[in-house]
Amino acid sequence: MKRRNAGPGWVLGGVLVVAGGVALGIAAWVEYGLGEVPCGLCLWERWPWRVLVGLGLLAALARGQGARAMLWLAVPVMLAACGLSAVHVGVEQGWWPSPLPECRAPVFHPGTFAERLAAMPVRPSKPCDAPTYLVGALPLSMAAMDGLYAAGVLAVIAYCLSRGRKRGRR
Questions:
Q1: pLDDT digits (tens, 9 = 90+) for 7-65
Q2: For residue 141, which of 150, 129, 153, 151 has the smallest C-alpha distance?
């Protein structure tokens, strides 16, 4: 009986699913377990990880060139994750203002007390320039750690794809 080789797509696809799941799991733990309120940029930073999980699942299920294409699509997704993190760190450090309107303080217009209450957001928001530090002695905010993690995942993807090319898999 001939053994069927599924190829490296399922292995790296599984790694991408786990990497995205870890990032989303930590964000959920900080939000729901520790009670930290995420800002608008924090919520945007979760999207590349969701897309990465989807691409990882597709890569794990696909064969041959289809799996490889999903892995190549993960590269710009992780570049976007690094870019979002860089924007967020810049906002935290005061280098530029946040591009999101929800990161600014609310503006209340004159009116009755009931109208002001109705204009308030349902969920309290956190300003994007207020960093969240998980480790007291480590001067890295969650946004900075997210960017470093995304760069590490990107390096693993690039290494695995370049190894496959050197072996003749195109």
A1: 556 778 888 999 999 999 999 998 888 888 888 888 899 999 999 999 999 988 887 78
A2: 129
Q: What is the spatial distance between Cα 46 and Cα 40, in angstroms, rounded to a whole number? A: 10
Q: Is 0.70 topped by the overall pTM? A: yes
Q: How far is CA 38 from the centre of its chain?
A: 13
Tell me the C-alpha distance between 91 and 78, whole Å. 20
Neighbours of 95 (CB within 10 A): 10
**DSSP track, the chain:** -PPPP--THHHHHHHHHHHHHHHHHHHHIIIIIS-PPP-HHHHHHTHHHHHHHHHHHHHHH--THHHHHHHHHHHHHHHHHHHHHHHHHHHHTTSS--S-GGGSPP-PPS--HHHHHHHS-SS----TTS--BSSTT---BHHHHHHHHHHHHHHHHHHHHHHHHHTT--
- Token pair of 94, please? 């005061």
Q: Which of 144, 6, 23 is nearest to 77 (CA)?
A: 23
Sign of CA dihedral 65, 68, 70, 72: negative
